[in-house]
Structure formats: structure tokens, C-alpha cells
Amino acid sequence: MEEKESKDILSRIQAMERELSFLKERVLSQTKTETPKQQTPPVSKPTPVHTHQAEVTLGEGPNWFVQWIGENLFVKLGVFSLLLATIWFFYLAIEEYWINESVRIWIGLISAIPILIYGFRVRHSRPYLSPSLLGLGIAILFSAYYSGYLWYDLYSTETCFVGLLILSLTTVATAHAEKSEVLFGFASLGAFSVPLLLSTGQNSYPFLFTYLLLWNLLFFWVRKDKDWKVIPLLLLCANHLIFAGWANDKLEESKPFFPILFQLGVFVLFLLREFQTLESKKSKDLVLNLVTIGFTLGLGFLQSYWAFSIFYPIAKPFLLTLILILFYGLYERSIRRTALNLEKKKLYDLIGLFGLPFIVSLIVIGTTGKFLAFSLISFAFLVTVASTYSKQLYMYFAAFPVWFFALFYIFAFTYRSQNEIPFLNGRFLVFATGSAYLVLSYLYSRKFSDLSKLFLYAAYPYWLLGTFVEIYLGFPEEKQLFLYTLSLILYGFIALSVGFGKKIQSLRYVGFGSLALVIIKFYLYDFWNLSLGYRISAGLFLGITLIVTGTLYNHFKKETK
């Protein structure tokens, strides 16, 4: 009945507003037609007008944080101070034996009732105070009930567990109804403390992880359509802290099913919840959501690495790869379900980078030696191609440090092994592959970013560096200087020929640069240090190359202008 009456009243108000606006327009139209033209009055001397600055409220002014401290932080600190004072008073009463055991418990239980009632009554009038008072009352109930079990053995472990669980679930229901993140934080603190407080020292990890996983499922459901930011991050850390505390002593003695199931469950639930929040909220409010996603991936990967190292050490790289595939699968699912604007795309580009360090660590874990160097270079190339294909500039930038590390990792293996043939070994294959990948990266991404030129500028020096390494490790010292000069002449001539033939200006620069190095090296160093036979050979090759180069230049001189 009340809803029907309120709707009738609203409809009447709207009708009256429409009629009032119609009458106003009619009066204004009549006054315009009836008012004769008036002569312009003489201009009077303007009188100074004293303006007074309107008072700015505290919430609108620059000191908004003062209001937040006064209304929010001070209230919570006051409630916390009352809680400390209450605890100290009971401690003193227990020390002096002013009250006996059963009275102590009843005092704690009864004293929480008025706090809860008052906190519930002011939930609308004092929204900052109400959750803190309700949390204080629940904390007193929780502490008093647990004290009866811990100090006085008034009931069994099972009874205490059921009572604390009912209290936590009641708090969750209240937090869900009131949409209070603070109250849910009190409930979460109690729920995660229950198995720790009631632990008897036995390794009952199936019950522990099943209980925690059910609690995380409840959180996944309760947080739906709620803009909670801090509690998810705290719950994520609580899950992993409990797991780490248990696994430090008990992981090697347990079986893999429940620990791995718990880690996968927490990983999937938190990623699903945070991605759903990204899909529905504005980007400017999602900093803590991004932090939670990053911690979910990072902590989940590290804990899984720990568990797989114990249970499946051989298959560890493969299983960790599945973890990352699962992350990117949920990531792609969220992208498909989101209407991407510019800000959302930047957010998802940033999230896409979260997995890159872990992919690199997988490569390091799964391979060794020259194959590891080859894998790192291939991964850097794939990241560049993927970022160009998906138009993700953040990932494109992130590929550069991976490239730098991958290209020079091969120098950890710059030694000559037995029966190694120069230029026909795994080390030179890494240099050759790296140079080819750099050229392909330039060709593929040159229309996407101007930084692609860095790939082209690095390709030839890297190939030349690999050649010098092979000469240094594979030939005697008396031949090395000549082979350095010969390789520069050969590569320079090839670059010039292809550059003139295919009309590629950059290859011409490479060829001229190589020949310039040869000329400088020949006259400043080789001429004084090579033996006579090598000097003759070097001079012969250099002279022929320079003559051919000059001929090519004159032939194509119109194109080079």
C-alpha cells in the first residue's frame, strides 16, 4: 500500500510540474507581446559592487583529506582504542580475580549486545561509525566465545568450531545485506582465524584446504556487484600466508591433490572476480584491482612452483606453463566480454604484460646452455610479433629488455668445445638466428612503431659480432686479424650489392660502414701487424672490393643522389 501511495504522489507532482511550466511559458509570451518598446534609460554611473566569496565546504576544498580523517579514520581509531581498553580491563580483572571464569565469558557476550544494537540503529545516520561498531561487537563475541574454549574448557573443539563458524557466517550475511566492506573484513578475519586457533597440531590439511576453498567460494558470491577493493587483496594474502605457513613444515609429508586443488581454486576464483570487476567498472577506479590481479598471478605462480617442485619436479615447467595458459585464457575471455575503449585497452595491455616475467622464468627453468639462449631469442621475437599483431604498445616496449638479455645471454657460452667446427655449431646458430629475427621484427613492425628501426640497426652488428666470436674461438691467433678484415670486406660487399640492386638505402649504409672500417683497420693496424703474405691478401681483396664498389656507385649514382 505504501509503495502504491508513493507512486500516486510522484505522478501527481510530475503532472503539477508540467502544468506549472506550461502556465509560465504562456505568461511570458503574453508579457512579450503586450510590453511596448521603451526608450533606453540614461546610463548611470556604475556603483561599486562588493562581492563576497562563497564559503567552500570542507569536502569541496583542497583539504578533503582532513574531512576523511575526521569522519572515517578517527572513528575507526576510536573504536580500536575502546577495544584495547576493554581488553586491558578484562586482563586486569582476570589478574586480580575480580570475576570468576563463567562470569567473565558472560560479561563479554552480554557487553557486545548493546554495541551491536547501537551500531545497527545508526547504520543510516552514521555510515562511518556503524560498520566499526558492528565489527567491534562481533569481535567481542568472537573473543569471549573462544576464551571459554581456550582457558576454561567449557565446550569441545567441535562445538567451538561450529559456534565460531555460525558467528562468521552471520557477520557475512550482515555485511552482504549492508554492503559493508569493513564488516566483511571482520568476518573474514574471524573465518580465517578459526582453523588456526583451533588447530591441534595434526596435519589435517584436507579439512583445512576444503574449508578455506569453500570460504573463498562464499567470498566470490558475496562480492558480486560490490565495489570492494582492499578486502580482496587482504584475503588473497591471507590465503597464501596460511598455505606458506602450513607448507613450510608439512608439504613434503602430504599428498598433492588438496594443496594443488587449493592453489588452483584460489587462482581461478580471484582472477574471475577481478576480471569481472574490470568488465563492469570505470578504469580510473581500478588500481587496486590491477594490483590484486598481479598478486594473484605472482603468488599463485610461486606457490605452484613450490608444490610442483615437491610433487612433480620433472614435469614442473610443463605444469607451470599450464598455469600461465590458464591466466591468459581468462584474460582473453574477459577481453571478449568487454566493450573496449581507449582507457580499457590500456588497462588490458598492461595486464597482458604481467605474464612475461614468468614466461621468461619458465624458459630458464626448462632449458639450459645454448638451447636456452636460442629459446630466449625465439621468445623475444614471438613477443614482438604478438604485440604488433594485437596492437599492444606496452607489450612491444616490454620486449626490448627481453631482447637485450636474450641476445647477449649466448656470451655465457663463448668457449670452444671439443670437435667443434667454426661456423657450424650451436653458438653461431644462435647469432645467425638472432640476426634473422631482428630483421624479421623490423619488417613486421615497421608500420606499427618507429622504434622498429632499432631492430634493423642491431641485426648486422650482431651478425658481425657472432662472426668475430667464431674467428676468435676457431682459428689460430696469426690468422685472426686477416679473417676479421676478410669478413668485413665480404659482408660490406654483399650489403652494397644487395643495397644497390634492391634499392635499399639502409644496406648501402651498412656496406659503406663496413668498408670504412676495413680501410681504417688496414692502414692503421693490419699494415703494421700482419705478416707479408696476409698483408698482400688483405690489400688485394680490399683493392678489388673498392674498385667494384666505385663501379657500382657510378652505375647507380642517379639513385643515390
Automatic annotation (TrEMBL):
Q: Does the keyword Membrane apply?
A: yes
Give the region (Disordered) as residue ranges: 29-49
InterPro entries recorded: DUF2339_TM
Q: Name one Pfam family in it.
A: DUF2339
Instruction: Kindly state which keywords UniProt assigns to this record, in alphabetical order.
Output: Membrane, Transmembrane, Transmembrane helix
Coiled-coil positions are: none
> What parts of the sequence cross the membrane?
73-91, 103-121, 128-148, 154-175, 182-198, 204-222, 229-246, 258-275, 287-308, 314-331, 347-365, 371-389, 396-415, 427-445, 454-475, 481-500, 507-524, 536-556
The keyword Membrane appears for this protein: yes
Source domain of life is Bacteria
Low complexity: bias regions:
30-42
The name this protein goes by in its record: DUF2339 domain-containing protein
- Organism for this UniProt entry: Leptospira bandrabouensis
